[in-house]
Amino acid sequence: MIPAERRSTPMLWVPLLLVVLALILQWLKLTSPQMGLLPNFSPWMALAFTGTLVMSRALPWAVWPVAMFGVNLAALGFSAALTGENLAIYAIYALAAWSASQFRGRLGLFQGLLGVVLCSAVFYLVTNTVSWAGSPAYAKSFSGWLQALTTGLPGYLPTWTFFRASFFSDLGFSALLMLAFNAEARVRDQATMPLLAVTAR
Question: How many CA atoms lie less than 13 Å away from 92 in the CB half-sphere?
């Protein structure tokens, strides 16, 4: 059972700073691609899910997907940021953030990591299915769908490599956020996230 004081997460500034730095990094990557700054670093699902999970209820869950959308809009402009594919991506991030908001103060570290892994897998499945459905280069069959999820189109990197990159980025950034949350919570004598939480039925 989770003690009542764990159900309402306090406002901690180190995790918030990490989230803001991730948004700045995204803006730098979009506006200065020649920098080659951590090309496989894309913890945006971790930002949406775990960022919401460790933040205080004083910050609504919609803050993070809106902030991510705002960064893309500022960096890419309306025409590039508001494509149908990008709008679907923002919707998935928003759903992940909303889901995390339902579990604030009720998940342990292990459960939080499982949550972001599940979100990453759903994101990969949905976005590649949309790509398969919308691209004439893919056969509209089960084998064509599997191709979209694994090898991708000839001449491009296999799609599974993008999942690998996002998986490790999301997992690593989520762990960093939760460890930062616990470290600051201990210093400030606040409730920390346990390794494994047991929720009341």
Answer: 22
- Give φ, ψ of 98 to 5 degrees: -65, -45
Number of domains, the chain: 1
Q: Which domain range does residue 172 map to?
A: 4-187
Q: What is the pLDDT of residues 78-101, one digit of tens each?
A: 888 888 778 888 999 999 999 999
Query: Which alpha helices (DSSP H) does the chain contain, by range?
Result: 13-31, 44-54, 63-76, 78-81, 84-101, 109-134, 142-149, 159-187
Q: Give the residue, 180 or 33, on which the prediction is more confident.
A: 180
Rounded to two decimals, what is the model's pTM?
Answer: 0.86
Q: Identify whether 193 is part of a domain.
A: no
Q: Is residue 198 included in any domain, yes or no? A: no
